[in-house]
Amino acid sequence: MEIIKTDTHYNFVRMMKPAFILSLAVIIIGIASLIWHGGPNYGIDFAGGTLIQIKFQNETHADKIRATFSSIGFEGSIIQNYGPKEFIVRTAESGTDAKGLTSRVDEGLGAAFGKGTYEIRRIEMVGPKVGKDLTRKAILAIIFSWIGILIYVGVRFEFRYALGGIIALVHDVLVTITFLSLFNKEFDLNIVAALLAIIGYSINDTIVIFDRIRENARKNIRQSLDEVINASVNQTLSRTILTSLTVIIVLIVLFFFGGAVIHDFAFALLVGIITGTYSSIFIASPIVLLFEKIKPTGLKRKK
């Protein structure tokens, strides 16, 4: 099945500069948003604290829940609607006595709402030291994935391909973080998993194009690298769009119907897959061309 014919002649290389400017602008907006918000909106996994999920039998207002938690010593709690008559309460307080904390919360809710009118579905606690350790490990996981891919692509292709692939992956992560910050989405381990999935998807998409560029470069030695890249991207365009479109359709369904548990995860993946498809075409391949102009490989090609 082909949505786009392989003999199309879209000039993707000509759009390299506008694409770079657009990407740079989005990343700058993301940095400004992070500064404005005082950094990423870390979840319990990284910031530490306590998460409490409660389901009520009757309609309940967040203000009453907040007042209840303030009365038992959880001042400044963040109350989020999690579904019909269901709420997530986040507080900076954490400790090791889970049973004591559960009893304390149960007594406060019982006094305010009445016993049997609610259900404490889960209580999760993460200490500040554990949160910092998880943050460090999450950052290292992303960096090591970049390093591993850099080595793999450098060995399989050439350094200029590895450079293009890694810059595209860094771009994908930064753009995804930009949208997470703009929409004030919570940054937790689920988002880290989404970022690693985005990296894997994006490099796979990029390698398909790189394979075609290398194949065409060997067959058409008289063609300029600009022409080779344009031809290669056009030839793989139908495959790229079909693959991305099927994934995007699934993610849209998950985003709207998957429930609150995976809402942010689906959002991050949705942004990342769109960004990864864009970077494979407009970032990774043009970087190969740019590196070739800075440091030619020595092959005699038409200018």
Structure description:
- This protein has 303 residues and is α+β, with helices and mostly antiparallel strands.
- The protein has helices at residues 16-36, 44-47, 62-71, 98-113, 128-156, 159-182, 189-219, 225-257, 263-294, and strands at residues 41-42, 49-56, 78-83, 86-91, 118-126, 186-187.
- Strand 3 (78-83) and strand 4 form a beta hairpin.
- The two termini are 35 Å apart.
Detail the topology: elements first, then pairings.
Blueprint: H1 16-36, E1 41-42, H2 44-47, E2 49-56, H3 62-71, E3 78-83, E4 86-91, H4 98-113, E5 118-126, H5 128-156, H6 159-182, E6 186-187, H7 189-219, H8 225-257, H9 263-294
Helix pairs in contact: 1-6, 3-4, 5-6, 5-7, 6-7, 6-9, 7-8, 7-9, 8-9
Condensed summary:
The chain has 303 residues and is of the alpha+beta class. It has helices spanning 16-36, 44-47, 62-71, 98-113, 128-156, 159-182, 189-219, 225-257, 263-294, and strands spanning 41-42, 49-56, 78-83, 86-91, 118-126, 186-187. The protein has nine helices and six strands.
